[in-house]
Design goal:
This protein is of the alpha+beta class. The protein has a single domain, classed as T-fold. About 35% of the residues lie in helices and about 25% in strands. The chain is built from 9 helices and 15 strands. An 8-stranded antiparallel sheet has the order 1-2-6-7-10-13-14-15. A hairpin with a 6-residue loop joins strand 14 and strand 15. Helix 2 packs antiparallel against helix 7 and helix 7 packs antiparallel against helix 8. The longest helix has 22 residues. The chain is globular. The N terminus is likely disordered. The structure holds adenosine monophosphate and magnesium ion. Magnesium ion binds next to strand 10 and helix 8.
């Protein structure tokens, strides 16, 4: 289970992991943890809809999954299917799991081929496309830089320019070779390593929704660590309501009304490196090796979870001046940036974002 977060969150996660086995058993046996079960809300008697909800720790963070289905059994099976998919993604794509596809890839010498699962291949493939479209701001090969900053935080000293430039030799999405026919991946430079922390959570949402639909769910709201897909409507027929956390104070900055789309937020609130009392973003600008310092909170709405997740990371690297025109050009993407100072936050959004905001 570990994976998509900094060392600082690991303890909390391990504590959560112990509880998780318990919760999972409860989910599979019977519902001391059923939070909502609403049958037939404002629907004609001949088309009842049940909503089932379950929260748990997954992928190093907190998840909440709600399913709407023709009956309670189907809704419950759909929620269980979503959690099974989260486990699959963790098992295949976590860079903290040595025998995951990514764990194994990171141990290979330059030029060696690895055949990976279709899901891992698809995630890498889509990641490379977003890397290209974002001009390299999004880069799944940033792991050596992430490790460098993690070590620096542990030693409580900033990495030197020389250290960063040495590490940057091994960074660059264009140095990944993917072959669709054989589903193989190759890293072409020594010491290259891949980290799907900026994309896999969103992809897990998409895979979870697909699995839920296959089980018969008609709608779902799936939240993994604040990245959300909101498909169809709630059991009462209304759109899902998703809060965007305020980066400078407790509570929400705004609430979004979403239907058939995904939203992801990247920022320094939950994950960061701290050196000498100063917080540095866990997102690294692959072009400089420095932590991103652009915007404390970037929220992206897109048609699917992977796209929202990856672009939220990319737009955290790019300045708003660079990113805004890019975002306006991208089909189906809306973005909200909330920057400091904390006393009077600066808010910028793309032209279609306001249409999703309820309050
Ligand atoms: P997110 O919270 O989705 O923005 O993802 C942040 C995580 O993505 C970090 O903890 C790293 O594991 C990884 N990451 C850091 N910088 C980048 C980058 N420039 N491109 C892609 N992934 C990154
Ligand atoms: Mg991301």
């Amino acid at each position: 289970m570990e994976p998509w977060h900094t060392e600082m969150a690991l303890d909390a996660v391990r504590r959560g992991a112990r509880m998780r086995g318990m919760l999972r058993r409860q989910l599979l046996t019977l519902p001391t943890v059923v939070i909502t079960l609403a049958i037939g809300c404002s629907r004609p008697a001949d088309s009842p809809r049940a909503e089932y909800k379950h929260s748990d720790q997954v992928m190093g963070t907190f998840a909440e999954v709600k399913a709407v289905a023709p009956n309670a059994e189907v809704a419950k099976a759909a929620v269980a299917a979503a959690y099974a998919r989260f486990d699959d993604v963790n098992r295949l794509m976590s860079d903290y799991v040595d025998d995951s596809d990514i764990g194994r890839l990171n141990q290979l010498a330059a030029g060696q081929l690895l055949t990976v699962a279709p899901e891992t291949f698809r995630c890498l493939q889509r990641g490379v496309v977003i890397s290209t479209e974002s001009g390299g701001a999004f880069d799944m090969t940033c792991r050596p830089l992430v490790l460098c900053w993690r070590a620096a935080a542990k030693a409580q000293r900033l990495p030197t320019e020389q250290e960063l430039s040495n590490v940057r030799q091994a960074v660059g999405y264009e140095k990944i070779v993917l072959d669709e026919g054989s589903r193989t991946v190759m890293l072409t430079v020594d010491n290259m390593q891949v980290d799907l922390g900026g994309i896999a959570k969103g992809y897990a949402l998409d895979l979870a929704w697909q699995a839920m639909r296959e089980k018969g769910a008609t709608s779902a709201m799936i939240d993994v660590g604040g990245d959300v897909v909101a498909m169809g409507t709630r059991a009462d027929g209304k759109p899902w309501r998703i809060g965007v956390r305020h980066p400078f104070q407790d509570g929400m900055y705004c609430t979004l009304r979403l239907r058939d789309c995904a939203v992801a937020t990247s920022g320094v609130q939950q994950q960061f490196f701290e050196i000498d009392g100063r917080r540095y973003s866990h997102i690294i600008d692959p072009r400089t090796g420095q932590p991103a310092a652009q915007s404390p909170s970037v929220t992206v709405i897109a048609s699917d979870g992977l796209t929202a997740d990856a672009w939220a990371t990319a737009f955290s690297v790019l300045s708003i001046a660079e990113a805004q025109p890019m975002a306006e050009q991208l089909d189906g993407i809306e973005v909200l940036w909330i920057s400091g100072p904390a006393e009077s936050p600066q808010v910028v959004q793309t032209s279609g974002f306001a249409a999703y905001v309820t309050e």
